[in-house]
Amino acid sequence: MTPQVLAIVMAVILLIAVILLLRSYVLPEKYAVIWIVASVAAIVLSAWPGLLDAVSDFFGIAQPINLLFVGAFFVILLLLMQISLELARTRDELRRVVQKLALDIENAARRGDRHDEH
Predict the structure, then answer these.
(1) DSSP assignment letter at 17
(2) Can you tell me the distance from the alpha carbon of 23 to that of 45, in angstroms, rounded to the nearest whole number?
(3) Distance separating alpha carbons of residues 34 and 36, to the nearest angstrom
(4) What is 43-105 written as a DSSP string?
(5) How many whole angstroms separate alpha carbon 113 and alpha carbon 22?
(6) With 0-12 CB in 10 A as exposed, 13-18 as middle and 19+ as buried, what is 11?
(7) Rounded to whole angstroms, what are the CA distances from 52 to 47, 84, 92, 100?
(8) Cα 56 vs. chain centroid, distance in angstroms?
(9) Which residues of the chain have pLDDT under 70?
(10) How far is CA 32 from CA 23, 36, 38, in A?
């Protein structure tokens, strides 16, 4: 098996895995989009290796592999940004829920004290 065929097969397996995880509700849609785009890009670049040479020449990058590393770096940065934003939203939502629960417990305790007096 040539390296090009191996790369295509691995990219297709990645795409199938992402779709299966998405269909089984294990991977949320917002994360699946990035993985689907990355796997389709890997399939396209594996099927047409001259495309990577043309794109790297267009950007003035001497070695096409450097373009892959830069692209992978930015994809990882996007994933980190997305996960950081999700973590911040989850933290804020958790804070609101805990505060509401504390108020509900306090209100229930006050109502319980009033009922005990009668």
Answers:
(1) H
(2) 26
(3) 6
(4) HHHHH-HHHHHHHHHHHT-SSHHHHHHHHHHHHHHHHHHHHHHHHHHHHHHHHHHHHHHHHHH
(5) 50
(6) buried
(7) 10, 31, 42, 54
(8) 26
(9) 113-118
(10) 10, 6, 10
For residue 108, give the 3-state DSSP assignment. Answer: helix
Length of the chain: 118
* H/E run at residue 23: helix 3-23
d(CA 61, CA 65): 9
Angle at 66 between CA 3 and CA 58, to 5 degrees: 100
d(CA 19, CA 13): 10
Which H helix or E strand runs over 114? helix 64-117
Q: For the stretch 62-100, what's the b/e string if a residue is b when 16 or more beta carbons lie within 10 angstroms of its beta carbon?
A: eebeebbeeeeeeeeeeeeeeeeeeeeeeeeeeeeeeee
Tokens of 77: 């940065």
Token pair 């692209």 in the structure block, residue:
71
Domain boundaries, the chain: 69-118
Locate 101 and state its tokens.
Answer: 């629960």
